[in-house]
Amino acid sequence: MRSRVIKVGTALVVISLVMAGGYYWRFLREIPVRTFAPEQNVEIRVFGVGTIEAQVVSKVGFQIAGKIVAVEADQGDLVKAGSLLAKLDDDAQRAKLKRSEAAQRQAAANLAKIEAQRGRAEISYQQKKSVNARRQTLVGRGSVSQEAAEDAQAAEEIALGDAKIIEADTKVAAVLQEDAASQRQLDAVVLAQHELRAPFDARVIARSKELGGIANAGEAVFTLIEPASIWVRVYVDEALAGGLTIGQRALVRLRSDMNSLFEAEVVRIDQENDRLTEERRVYVRCRACDPRHQLRYLGEQAEVEIVKATASGLFVPLRFVEVYGGRSGTIWSLHNGRLARAVSAAWRTPARRAYPDYFRG
Question: Cα(first)–Cα(last) distance of the chain, in Å?
Fold first, then answer.
């Protein structure tokens, strides 16, 4: 019997000690807590999702139709302005150019011949004019016959007519030479159109034709972009778009490289929002990216954070706010070493809406 009493007493003592320890642990012990200290110059960021695009995109092709006999570039290549991209078969056009060059030389020779004839006709006219003047003087003195004077007058007029004819032939020959030169220039231009050259410093992102294929006039053979014109088109919710301006700093995170952030800045904000999605289109461009940068892949998705402003104060993550109704909530505060609940107003400035994951007490 005594043994049983001792066991019961021992059990009661153990239970009492456990209860006392539990009470102390629950109500009397010091609880370590992590507090949030006021922060200075906290960046207020606006989040948006977009894709990599290029401002300058050009689909280039030949102005004439023909068979492709050379392809000098492929997608991914960086090409300089004026560099050869592709070439058409130009044997027939080269023959036309040689014929027009020969016609130009023939026209030049013909003009030189007629100009020589014009010089001879001018000399003949001056000689006939001088003879006629002398005979007209002598006929008055009776030294020559009237018939001889009339013959001299007729000879002068014939020589003058011949000179005018040669003068007109000279003008015609000059026009024919200009026409031959124009035809040669036209054939040279058409010959140059058999070569497709880069209109600006570009990167090739697509090649639509291959060696031996037929290219139609105006059909795209290459798609080019200007590497410096690459930007990210970001869609930002209208509710967060207030205060966005050109020149603001942005951070870009690519879907293919989520662990890296690229420095960028806002370079354009569309003046018309998307009425269906209620979003604003914002364009950000890398501040220091070379043409081989990771941002060169068009169409890739990207996450962008635009630094809209900075603020100072006490910031508490919303997950630590109780009974949050959008304007106010309850937070725990530490005063004189003791915890207590406190009701605090929410951050009512535009920065609060731009930074929704935090609550400023």
Answer: 65
Question: In this predicted structure, what is the pLDDT of residue 354?
Answer: 39
Cα(218)–Cα(67) distance, integer angstroms = 14
- Any residues with CB less than 8 A from the CB of 288 and at least 6 apart, and which? 263
Q: For the segment 94-107, what is each residue's pLDDT rounded down to a tens digit? A: 999 899 989 889 88
Q: What is the pTM of this model?
A: 0.66
Whole-number Cα distances in Å, 90 to 99, 185, 187, 248? 14, 16, 11, 53
pLDDT > 90 in the chain, percent: 36
Strands across the sheet containing 222-225: 57-60, 222-225, 202-207, 78-79
Most distant pair of Cα atoms in the chain: their distance: 193
Mean pLDDT throughout 160-184? Answer: 83
CA distance 117 to 153: 22
DSSP per-residue codes, 140-161: HHTSS-HHHHHHHHHHHHHHHH
Could you tell me if 159 and 128 are in contact, meaning their C-beta atoms sit under 8 angstroms apart?
yes
Contact 224, 204 (CB under 8 A): yes
Q: What element of type H or E holds 101? A: helix 91-141
